[in-house]
């Protein structure tokens, strides 16, 4: 029997006689000990030796119980005819073949020994029990701490949104005036503020801004740079991490829960981002590889804070993670931290331009992109109000959509942590603070409307939508929040729509110079600027149609699991975008069901011996990133319609590797969006020679022209198959032109299936017509007419370049020059050159004392039809005086001054604001009733009051 370490071995029983057991004696052998062990035992005290001997005796007794249990088990199994229990022995207990049976029955491993002890009721040693309890207690405490942190750090639930009804005027749209010359000093310094740009591009905003910055940098009129969050993954990109260098360290103010202003250190780095200056890629005589020049744009990276919770800001695993927030930092705090730090950095550059490593000179203009950066406008105006001598840049604010940006909000409880207490501000800055309640609804601050009011110029990314907004033809959800502000800017001529363009410097999306297409020999030939030259239409070596056909063959050979040989005889419809309801993902399944039904019909004709001429067939390819549309639904479509549906999501690198090849092989660009500001995907589809199947909403109407069925087909000037999203606007079913009022209703961004049923029928009809048109072009048209058709689509896309005459770059430069005259002041300051003098402060209500900012909005004023004017008098500080509130010195006894009263701590602005917006005020009706005494006021105390008290005591 093998015993635990430290126990004396037990000799097996000795038998005497003819197989019968006469006497059994157990002899305990003295275990052999090393010299070190004997020396340690000699040093023990008698008491320690006694304790050790008792412990050894208990363990030996336990071993005897184990042996007795085993013998009882063996006897029981023999009685009932059961096979003996097999006990696994350790490798160390097997010695020789003669003693194998003895060791198997008498030895167990340590693990088996502990299991046997628990089976016969022998408890673990005390030290194991103590360790187990300590471990379990530690785990329980850790779980409790995590739960408490999650409970107390959770943002309060948002109240049901109540919007004050406000009317606004219908203003005729006036575009930028080109008659006046552009007046700009040489290399005017412009800085863009955004969450996406260049290496941190996630969606359309990043693509658009990257293209705009590159085009402005190439124009030579502006000195352009970008302010961007310092996302953590940028440090792991080999080409970028060596270009990042620290240039400054800011002290960003933050108001804690006690109302104390603290400053958190924030590092700012500079990244010299490299971009490619493309030559004339259409000219065949230009050696493209040698003509490419590398240029740089400075990106200033606002880093995370050096203390909790701001140390967790801007953690991101990649471009798709730039809008995520990681605990313990809240999402709104991350946005407010970036806005506050950006304003501090701009002020630092203008105060000390020589100390910042970068281009010299002051910042003339700040261009804000998106509602998440709208608070930068407030912080800049606050700096202007605090210091009239400071150099403040002009502000341009661009709305990139009419859905998400308008609905973006910050809880007031989060916003007040980044607003300095009102007692620390100048009177003009306090006047700016009084306007904040105009943008607060149901304890939520909506910064988009505030940025529209505080900006010197406001733009939208589509000229047609900008005109429809101001003239009342475009409606969208929660428009009451922002339309009064847009109408006010339009009256001043400070609201304009500027249509975007296509970025040809992105090599992966340029069919003429894409590295993958050039390597595989399927790129468009470079034949000059005149793509419709008749001399080149008949040359097979310069064929655009042949390049698209070869690209489709490359896809079939390289990706056999996603494409098949049938795709050479049918068109490919390509959808590119985020998987969300607003992009029209609900149109996928009806189209696939229509294609499957057509396949069944064709199979029935073949069974009857009739061959279907030009079989109606197609494949829908969906490529993009996950969003609010369930990815399970798309995977279900992949399983149900494997022959007609291909899904390429963002979980693999297939988009980055084969994206340009898939674009080249596609025959249609499918854009069934419910709303589009510009429609970059549709424009890029035209660049790759694919006509567009779309709803034609929003900015798509500016460059999409529907095919005219009454014209001779080879000479049709259209470039798109359009269908109406809502209502019957347009000539005929499914052929309506964009621009109808119902098609512009972006507030129906997620209708029910019943509401969407007519649009689904129109979509299927248009898709069927597009497939038949493709079959007709492929089989009935001459090769020259096919070539002219594809080249005309590419020509339409080339006309959408950023530097086209009166294009985005020229309009943006004109917008910059009109933003604010040299030496001018912001319009909000011009309306109030001097703050109004404080009026006599009335008696405050019982529960309304010391509420300096947001008291003017409550449940009563939110349902009124007219907005109430801000109560400026309640928000301005009291004039300094040695006398008390009632005209006499406040004393504790008598009439002398008391330092205790004068130094009494006032409630902080932050704590008061949080109280106001997270609990209902119990005394709201006191505003309209009689005045009650405030519990915060001390009783009157002065000479007259003291004499009256003395006379009363004498009478007693």
TrEMBL record:
- Location of the Starch synthase catalytic domain: 190-482
Gene3D superfamilies per record: Glycogen Phosphorylase B
Q: Which residues cross the membrane?
A: 128-152
Q: Which PANTHER family match?
A: ALPHA AMYLASE DOMAIN-CONTAINING PROTEIN, GRANULE-BOUND STARCH SYNTHASE 1, CHLOROPLASTIC/AMYLOPLASTIC
Could you tell me where this protein is found in the cell? Plastid, Amyloplast
Q: Which UniProt keywords apply?
A: Amyloplast, Glycosyltransferase, Membrane, Plastid, Transferase, Transmembrane, Transmembrane helix
One Pfam family from the record:
Glyco_transf_5
Where mainly located?
Answer: plastid
Compositionally skewed regions (Low complexity) per UniProt:
89-110, 881-891
Which residue ranges does the record annotate as region Disordered? Answer: 1-56, 87-112, 875-956
Does the record's keyword annotation contain Coiled coil? Answer: no
Compositional bias per record (Basic residues), positions renumbered to this chain? 917-956
Name the chain's protein.
BQ2448_5298 protein
* InterPro entries, per database record: Starch_synth_cat_dom
> Where along the chain is composition biased (Polar residues)?
18-37
* Pro residues composition bias: residue spans: 1-12
Q: Does the keyword Amino-acid biosynthesis apply?
A: no
Could you cite one Gene Ontology molecular function of this protein? Answer: glycosyltransferase activity
């Amino acid at each position: 029997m093998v015993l635990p370490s430290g126990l004396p071995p037990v000799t097996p029983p000795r038998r005497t006689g003819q197989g019968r057991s006469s006497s059994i004696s157990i002899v305990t052998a003295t275990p052999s000990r090393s010299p070190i062990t004997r020396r340690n035992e000699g040093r023990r005290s008698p008491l320690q030796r006694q304790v050790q001997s008792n412990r050894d005796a208990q363990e030996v007794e336990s071993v005897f119980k184990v042996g007795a249990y085993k013998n009882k088990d063996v006897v029981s199994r023999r009685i009932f005819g059961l096979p003996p229990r097999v006990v696994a022995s350790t490798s160390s207990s097997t010695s020789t073949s003669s003693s194998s049976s003895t060791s198997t029955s008498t030895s167990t491993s340590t693990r088996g020994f502990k299991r046997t002890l628990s089976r016969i009721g022998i408890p673990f040693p005390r030290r194991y029990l103590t360790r187990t309890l300590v471990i379990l207690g530690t785990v329980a405490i850790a779980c409790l701490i995590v739960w408490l942190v999650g409970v107390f750090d959770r943002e309060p639930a948002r109240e049901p949104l109540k919007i004050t009804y406000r009317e606004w005027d219908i203003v005729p749209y006036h575009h930028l005036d080109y008659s006046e010359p552009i007046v700009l000093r040489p290399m005017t310094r412009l800085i863009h503020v955004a969450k996406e740009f260049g290496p941190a591009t996630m969606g359309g905003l990043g693509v658009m801004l990257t293209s705009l910055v590159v085009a402005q940098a190439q124009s030579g009129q502006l000195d352009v740079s970008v302010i961007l969050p310092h996302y953590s993954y940028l440090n792991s990109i080999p080409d970028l991490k060596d270009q990042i260098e620290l240039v400054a360290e800011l002290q960003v103010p933050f108001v804690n829960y006690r109302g104390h202003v603290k400053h958190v250190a924030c590092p700012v780095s500079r990244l010299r981002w490299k971009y490619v200056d493309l030559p004339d890629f259409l000219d065949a005589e230009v050696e493209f590889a040698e003509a490419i020049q590398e240029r740089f744009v400075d990106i200033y990276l606002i880093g995370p804070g050096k203390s909790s919770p701001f140390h967790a800001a801007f953690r991101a695993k990649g471009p798709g993670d730039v809008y995520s927030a990681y605990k313990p930092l809240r999402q709104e705090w991350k946005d407010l931290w970036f806005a506050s730090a950006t304003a501090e950095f701009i002020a630092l550059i203008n105060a000390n331009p020589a100390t910042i490593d970068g281009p010299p000179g002051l910042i003339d203009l700040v261009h804000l992109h998106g509602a998440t950066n709208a608070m930068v406008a407030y912080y800049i105006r606050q700096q202007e109000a605090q210091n009239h001598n400071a150099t403040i840049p002009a502000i341009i604010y661009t709305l990139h959509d009419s859905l998400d940006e308008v609905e973006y909000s910050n809880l007031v409880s989060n916003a007040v942590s980044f607003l300095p207490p009102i007692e620390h501000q100048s009177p003009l800055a306090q006047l700016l603070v009084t306007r904040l309640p105009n943008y607060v609804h149901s304890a939520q601050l909506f910064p988009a409307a505030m940025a529209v009011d505080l900006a010197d110029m406001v733009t939208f990314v589509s000229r047609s939508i900008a005109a429809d907004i101001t003239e009342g033809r475009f409606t969208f959800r929660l428009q009451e929040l922002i339309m009064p502000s847009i109408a006010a800017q339009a009256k001043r001529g400070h609201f304009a729509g500027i249509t975007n363009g296509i970025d040809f410097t992105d090599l992966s999306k340029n069919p003429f110079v894409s590295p993958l297409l050039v390597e595989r020999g399927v790129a468009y030939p470079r034949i000059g600027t005149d793509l419709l030259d008749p001399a080149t239409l008949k040359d097979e070596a310069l064929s655009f149609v042949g390049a698209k056909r070869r690209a489709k063959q490359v896809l079939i050979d390289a990706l056999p699991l996603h494409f098949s040989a049938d795709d050479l005889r049918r068109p490919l419809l390509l959808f590119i975008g985020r998987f969300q309801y607003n992009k029209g993902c609900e149109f996928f399944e009806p189209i696939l069901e229509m294609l499957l039904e057509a396949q069944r019909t064709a199979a029935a004709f073949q069974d009857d011996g009739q061959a279907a001429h030009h079989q109606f067939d197609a494949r829908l390819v969906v490529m993009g990133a996950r969003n609010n549309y369930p990815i399970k639904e798309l995977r279900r479509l992949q399983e149900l319609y494997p022959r007609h549906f291909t899904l390429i999501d963002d979980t693999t690198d297939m988009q980055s590797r084969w994206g340009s090849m898939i674009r080249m092989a596609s025959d249609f660009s499918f854009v069934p969006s419910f709303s589009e500001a510009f429609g970059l995907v549709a424009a890029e589809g035209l660049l790759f020679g694919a006509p567009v199947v779309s709803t034609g909403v929003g900015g798509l109407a500016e460059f999409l022209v529907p095919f005219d069925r009454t014209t001779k087909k080879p000479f049709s000037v259209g470039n798109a198959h359009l269908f109406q999203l809502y209502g019957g606007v347009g000539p005929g079913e499914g052929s309506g032109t964009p621009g109808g009022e119902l098609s512009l209703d972006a507030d129906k961004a997620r209708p029910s299936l019943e509401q969407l049923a007519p649009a689904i029928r129109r979509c299927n009809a248009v898709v069927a017509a597009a497939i038949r048109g493709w079959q007709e072009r492929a089989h009935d048209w001459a090769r020259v007419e096919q070539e002219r058709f594809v080249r005309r689509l590419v020509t339409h896309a080339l006309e959408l370049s950023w530097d086209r005459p009166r294009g985005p770059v020229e309009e943006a430069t004109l917008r910059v020059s009109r933003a604010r005259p040299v030496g001018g002041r912001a319009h909000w300051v011009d309306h109030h050159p001097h703050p109004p003098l404080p009026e006599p402060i009335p008696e405050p209500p019982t529960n309304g004392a010391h509420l300096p900012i947001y008291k003017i909005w409550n449940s009563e004023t939110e349902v009124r039809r007219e907005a109430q004017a801000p109560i400026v008098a309640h928000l301005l500080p009291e004039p300094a005086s040695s006398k008390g509130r009632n005209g006499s010195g406040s004393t504790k006894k008598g009439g002398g001054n008391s330092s205790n009263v004068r130094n009494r701590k006032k409630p902080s602005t932050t704590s008061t604001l949080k109280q106001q917006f997270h609990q209902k005020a119990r005394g709201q009706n006191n505003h309209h009733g009689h005045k009650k005494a405030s519990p915060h006021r001390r009783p009157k105390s002065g000479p007259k009051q003291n004499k009256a008290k003395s006379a009363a005591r004498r009478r007693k």
